[in-house]
Model the fold of this input.
Amino acid sequence: MRFGFAKLCGAACLLAAMWGLTEFRRLDPRVWVRAANGKQGPVRILQFYASVGTLAPGEKAQLCYGVENAKSVRILPRLQGVYPSPSHCLEIVPEHTTHYTLQAEGFDGTVAIRSFTLAVQATPVRAQENLNYSD
Done:
């Protein structure tokens, strides 16, 4: 009986160790560094806006954001060059009205979210005056 219990405990320990190793491999391999003079506290979105309120298709705009105490930041729809910063702008060229969402994750695991919609509208065509030419 004693031998069976020892085998069972050994098997349980082996199973737990194997589970721990698989979980270890799933950990985020990146190292997060916070500035030594950085303010401690919860993650905050300081700003999130576009440089214009409305665009025509193909026109460019600046999408600007700023975060504090963030270990990661992402903007949806996905944009390249997004990282934690108190002030950063990206060039965007939306082809249609787009809803942008900024998600910042803090070092303590909390998440801050802010969003806005940038309207893209075709430029109105001016009505041409009806000109009658008579000789």
